[in-house]
Design a protein that fits this description.
Helix 1 links the parallel strand 3 and strand 4. The chain is globular, with a radius of gyration of 14 Å. Helices cover 26% and strands 18% of the residues. The chain has a single domain, classed as Glutaredoxin. It is of the alpha+beta class. The chain has four helices and six strands; from the N terminus they run E-E-E-H-E-H-H-E-E-H.
Length: 161
């Protein structure tokens, strides 16, 4: 697998989602959680999506329960929480693992393409973000503390390429 567009994942509702449908778009891929100190970032992610979606940017949220069991709910509960509390309209995917033996293949690829501090591939917490170029290659990884709105300059750069 060479690019993000080579992967198929699963939508929150359980249907397969071929990421090749996003070819030519900029993607912001985030591991999310509903009961995390960073959960209010859903609002910022939705704002970025609304600001840029008509220009070819899609945000993809991947719920993950690996950090402090902060995403304990099932698909329906996660979807309802995100819509009700943050007006999330960007695609949410099925709950996954991002680290360890059962890490989702897409996240294995993202982590390898954009390691964290000191070259570590492990994701340290919820709301780690990966910005993906229109050609499906990973542009940059961002820490959970980086607010979505702080990515707008990089998104603008990638849209101009």
């Amino acid at each position: 697998m060479n690019t993000v567009f080579d992967f198929t994942t699963t939508a929150l509702g359980g249907t397969p989602l071929d990421l090749s449908q996003y070819r030519g778009q900029v993607l912001l891929i985030v591991n999310t959680a509903s009961k995390c100190g960073f959960t209010p970032q859903y609002k910022g992610l939705e704002a970025v999506y609304q600001q840029f979606r008509d220009r070819g940017v899609t945000v993809l949220g991947f719920p993950c329960n690996q950090f402090g069991a902060q995403e304990p709910g099932g698909a329906e509960e996660i979807g309802a929480f995100c819509e009700k509390n943050f007006g999330v309209s960007f695609p949410l995917l099925a709950k996954i693992d991002v680290n360890g033996e059962h890490a989702d293949p897409l996240f294995r690829h993202l982590k390898h393409a954009a390691p964290g501090i000191l070259g570590s591939e492990a994701i340290k917490w919820n709301f780690t973000k990966f910005l993906v170029k229109k050609d499906g290659t990973v542009f940059k990884r961002y820490a959970p503390t980086t607010k979505p709105e702080e990515l707008t300059a990089d998104i603008e750069t990638l849209l101009g390429v």
